[in-house]
Design a protein that fits this description.
The protein has 278 residues and is an alpha/beta fold. The protein has one domain (2-277): Metallo-dependent phosphatases (Purple Acid Phosphatase, chain A, domain 2, 4-Layer Sandwich). The protein has 8 helices and 11 strands. The strands form 2 sheets. It has a 6-stranded mixed β-sheet with strand order 5-6-7-8-10-9, with helices on one face. A 5-stranded mixed β-sheet has the order 1-11-2-3-4, with helices on one face. Strand 3, helix 3 and strand 4 form a beta-alpha-beta unit. The protein is globular. The structure holds fe (ii) ion (FE2) (2 copies). One fe (ii) ion binds at residues 23, 25, 72, 99, 101, 246, 248.
């Protein structure tokens, strides 16, 4: 396990430690799945990924107050993956923000919108994954962990209404997202790393030169309540940090003065981040 370490000072009476893990991309299939799903699962060795995940979970249980998983726990929809996710998410120490792959039938097959997501969600019924997937909060050690589903690079107005209710509790908030929020230095690093012609996988990315695929452009360009939501998040002093994943590399920067965004690389690569909050 490659462990990154950070400290965040927010004036807690007692320190709180969390392990941030994201993008595990577990791929379980069995006899209930078709050949196409088996081929998807055959792209890599899921048992290795599961072993890394187990190590991360064991570390969190032994050394941390909470494991925050920011999505893409599974790589695609399958009953075996849902069963795995339900078992993990029923762990007391795990707090979860859903990613796009929780709702992915097949890789990059279609324009992913609310209808696509709801179709996948129906496959999870009646239990879902056992935890709320679109908005969720939990208070641990005087800190309010709030998970908002921005897995398709967008926010919806109702999520901000809910966030305002969380803010009214008056506690410091750690915001847990799947898709990172646009920030200039992150964007430039993302472009440099990904090379020309790659889509910008950040929420609130209004740059003209990316992304190149037309359908991706429609999907990723901020619309609806997205920019308003991001501006609102950046303006709230009670929001002390943003945790995110999705882009499969680690990066730290400030979204606004005093508001760090911690992006952690792929859990499938064995990367995890220990954040000590003081
Ligand atoms: Fe991912
Ligand atoms: Fe993702």
């Amino acid at each position: 396990m490659e462990l990154l370490k950070n400290t965040l000072h927010i004036g807690l009476e007692r320190p709180l430690t969390l392990l941030h893990v994201t993008d595990s991309h577990i791929a379980r299939v069995d006899e209930r799945d078709n050949e196409r799903k088996h081929a998807l699962a055959g792209r890599f060795d899921s048992s290795n990924r599961e072993q890394l995940f187990r190590e991360q979970l064991a570390y969190a249980k032994a050394h941390c107050d909470l494991m925050v998983h920011t999505g893409d726990l599974i790589d695609f929809t399958s009953q075996a993956n849902f069963e795995f996710a339900r078992t993990i998410l029923s762990e007391e120490k795990v707090f979860f923000a859903a990613g796009n792959h929780e709702f992915s039938h097949y890789l990059g097959e279609a324009y992913e919108d609310r209808a696509y997501k709801m179709n996948s969600f129906r496959e999870m019924l009646p239990e879902g994954l056992g935890v709320p997937l679109f908005f969720h909060s939990r208070i641990v050690g005087g800190v309010n962990f709030v998970a908002i589903d921005d897995s398709y690079h967008q926010f919806e107005a109702w999520q901000i209404t809910r966030l305002k209710k969380e803010l009214a509790k008056g506690l410091p908030i750690i915001l847990c997202l799947h898709v990172p929020l646009f920030e200039r230095s992150l964007y430039e690093y993302h472009v440099e790393r990904s090379g020309p012609g790659t889509s910008c996988y950040l929420a609130g990315c209004e740059e003209d030169d990316l992304p190149v695929d037309e359908w991706r452009a429609i999907e990723i360009r901020p619309r609806g309540a997205t920019m308003e939501a991001i501006d609102f998040i950046k303006s709230q002093p009670l929001i002390k940090a943003v945790l995110a994943g999705h882009i499969h590399f680690s990066f730290e920067s400030e979204l606004a003065p005093g508001l760090p965004q911690f992006i952690t690389g792929g859990g499938y690569d064995g990367i995890a981040r220990e954040l000590t909050i003081l």
